[in-house]
Amino acid sequence: MQINGITLNGATLNGGAQLVPGIVTCEVEPAFSILWSVQLLLNGVDATEYLTGTIRIEREEFARCIADFSLLLDAGSVNPDSYIGQDVEIHFIHHQADADVQVLRFRGKVERPRFSLQTRILACECSDRLNEVVEPMPIDQIDAMVGGLWSPDVFEPTEGRSRWTYAKERLSTLPVSFQRSVEGQLQVTPWAATSTPHWLIGPDTAIFQSIDYLPVELSERINVVEIEADYRFIRLRERHQAFTWKHPDIVGDSIETGFCVWRHDSSQVPTIQMIKDASEGGGFTAILDGAYWLRLPESGVYCDPPAGWRNEYPDLILRASWTSAIRWAQRVTEQYTLRLEAPASVAQAGQVITRDRIAMDTESDQEQTFLNATYTSPEPGAVQDSLGDYVVDIRNEERRQLGLSTILAMGRVSILSAHRGNRFAFTLPTAEAVGIRLEHTVRIEDQVLGHPISCQAKVVNIIDEWDLKSGRCYTNFQLAVSQGGSSETDPLTPPATPNSTPPGEPWPLIDLPTQLGGRNESPIYDHALNGFSGNYDETDLDINPGLELFPYNFRFEVGEIPADHMDEFPVEATKTYRVSVPTDHLEL
Predict the structure, then answer these.
(1) Which DSSP helix (H) or strand (E) runs through 237?
(2) Among candidate residues 239, 231, 325, 326, the one with its CA nearest the CA of residue 568
(3) Segment 116-175, tens digit of pLDDT
(4) Domain count, the chain
(5) CA distances (Å), 412 to each of 61, 215, 232, 407, in order?
(6) Is residue 83 helix, strand or coil?
(7) DSSP H helices in 420-573
(8) 89 and 10, same structural domain?
(9) Is residue 109 a part of any domain in this protein?
(10) What is the value of pTM for the model shown?
């Protein structure tokens, strides 16, 4: 596979030992004497004759490869800037009796040449320009190259930012290293060592007294990651209140049981518009479809004995059943407390904790549209909750899943990285080591002071050091040795969405009362009482002029809404994940 002309090495990525079919273990053959030389090409031209001093090449996981060498230039004018950006190739040559073996050890460009006027030595600092190769790549090519997870809630937006930084963000969710091979290929390689080593280094092969083991400090061996994650979204809530009202004298809805009973001792009755106005004045924003209005009949002859009736107001009613509704938007915050831990490491050394946090917040124009709408039925797609409300949650489940998955993956990688911070170091003559690469797993078996030692782990660092004056040509290796792990593991599945309906009960049906004045038996008018108030058509004012007449009115108000139903409502969810840390072979 090629991206921007750069070949990408593929690899299967997982958290355990890599079972790579077809690996044939090569054994490093010790040499009793080594005859070597080096070749330097600058822009394809052989410049070996100008080399002086020491050549150093360092190759490490997740970093650009760097090379330093010095040139002793002939007399004459020198422009150091002319060397900037020149192509560099450094070859190691092992001279053998039957044939010379020439191996490419570095390919890159001169980054910074420094010229000494006193010694006429041009010291060249070079790199393989890993960052610069990635920087011009489009986002989709980086995604295809690196893989991993990326969430805008965890990282900054990509616009105007470094593509190299973006690639590192994706890589932070994977237990892998990223670098360029000697030939210039972009490599994404797993951290986990393969079960079959690529190279075996037997006894008496490593340079005397070069073997060393450097364990990671306890304070850096992170075995617990605690994550706080908030997901805040908008809940559109529509609450319904059912009402009923009827004139206190009627006993039914038919002409005979309703209108005729009322007309026998008639009084004022409300209009439909009065109820609609009362609903709006009481804080409601709609009366829903399906309302029932028992109107006074049209003009005609009714009842027994028959009597004429004239009605110029067709919206006067004797009974009504309707549902008033109110809408508002509530914020809901799902508060997740997530914990990743390596159980065996915690049991061995106690907790070494690091913490992280993300916040995801949804915004939507749908909120104002919902609140400002003229409606006579619930919002399309609304569902009824246990409070009896019709709700629409403006949430993005894919976004929640991605944000939580990303930060969980980062936490797992932090634990794995901390546990492979141990370093097993040794040195080989370069002639014996030229085949060992960063993507390889190495097994070394040797002894120190008569005690056997062995280690099998993945290569993390390679440094070539060649002294042209003394003839010393060594390569130093470091293996990343993962320790302190266990086999317990859990999939990093984000927690299910917690129930976020506040406690409470649906509003019950309200039967609105009636106050009728103008009679000696009429009660004292209650200004605070909801419902209809009016007067009898035939009053007792002629015999009791001091009687109070009631206002002609219909009123009711929104019931008390608990704060939990209106204000931001938090809901918590917790989950613990076990992280399996590979344990590489190590015997000291």
Answers:
(1) strand 224-246
(2) 231
(3) 988 999 999 999 999 999 999 999 999 999 999 999 999 999 999 999 999 999 999 999
(4) 2
(5) 19, 20, 25, 9
(6) helix
(7) 430-433, 563-566
(8) yes
(9) yes
(10) 0.88
Question: Do 356 and 407 form a contact (C-beta atoms < 8 A)?
Answer: yes
- Name the phi and psi angles at 506, rounded to 5: -65, 150
Residues 427 and 532 in one domain: no
Q: pLDDT at position 7, please?
A: 39
- pLDDT digit string (tens) for 76-90? 888 999 999 999 999
pLDDT of 3: 36
CATH of the domain at 128: 2.30.300.10
136 and 68 co-located in one domain: yes
d(CA 562, CA 375): 24
Reported as a single tens digit per residue, the pLDDT across 214-261 is: 999 999 999 999 999 999 999 999 999 999 999 999 999 999 999 999
| Residue 59 is assigned to a structural domain of this protein | yes
In the structure encoding, which two tokens stand for residue 216, read together?
């990671």
CA gyration radius, the chain: 42
* pLDDT number for residue 74: 86
Q: How many CB atoms lie within 10 A of CB 162?
A: 12
**Within a domain: residue 165?**
yes
Q: Which domain holds residue 78?
A: 2-206+422-481
For residues 340 and 409, what is the distance between their CA atoms, to the nearest angstrom? 10
Give 327's contacts (C-beta < 8 A, 6+ positions apart). Answer: 236, 237, 238, 239, 285, 286, 370, 371, 375
Average pLDDT over all residues of the chain: 93
Q: By C-alpha distance, which of 326, 396, 399, 331 is closest to 367?
A: 331
The answer on 548 and 475 residing in a single domain is no
> Token pair of 156, please?
């900054």
Tell me the residue type at 465.
E
Structure-token pair, residue 427? 């040195």
Residues 551 and 433 in one domain: no
Tokens found for residue 13: 């990525």
Measured in whole angstroms, the distance separating CA 333 from the mean position of its chain's CA atoms is 16
* pLDDT band, residue 21 (cuts 50/70/90): low
